[in-house]
Write a structure and sequence with these properties.
WH_DNA-bd_sf; 3-stranded antiparallel β-sheet; single chain; Arc Repressor Mutant, subunit A; PadR family transcriptional regulator; globular; alpha+beta; Metal_resp_DNA-bind_regulator; 17% strand; WH-like_DNA-bd_sf
């Protein structure tokens, strides 16, 4: 099953949670962490990740800084104070949605 369509609605939540758990990360590191955590079942593309990161930054939820590592410039993302507060809200929203989805998927035919 391709989860690319399903992931779109939760990508911001995933990014915020990863940054909460890891303090700061760069883009490729985020894609690799998602791949590793899901045993390759969810693959984030740059085309999906970077627009989401830029939107979160524009919304004041992320801050960035660059660092040279092995002669390469890496752009690191970290939560702002506002972003830290938003993580809890986004996770609660996602959990409520998953609970409702579970109810819908477990529906049994009404045999009357």
């Amino acid at each position: 099953m391709s989860s690319n369509q399903l992931i779109k609605g939760t990508l911001q939540t995933i990014i915020l949670k990863l940054l909460e758990d890891n303090k700061q990360m760069y883009g490729y590191e985020i894609t690799q962490k998602v791949k590793e955590t899901t045993s390759g079942e969810i693959l984030l593309t740059e085309g999906a990740l970077y627009p989401a990161l830029h939107k979160l930054e524009a919304d004041g939820l992320l801050e960035t800084h660059t660092q040279v590592v092995d002669n390469r410039v890496r752009k690191y993302y970290a939560l702002t104070e506002k972003g830290g507060k938003e993580v809890t809200s986004k996770i609660e929203e996602a959990q409520a949605f998953m609970d409702q989805l579970q109810l819908l998927l477990n529906l049994k035919p009404n045999l009357q």
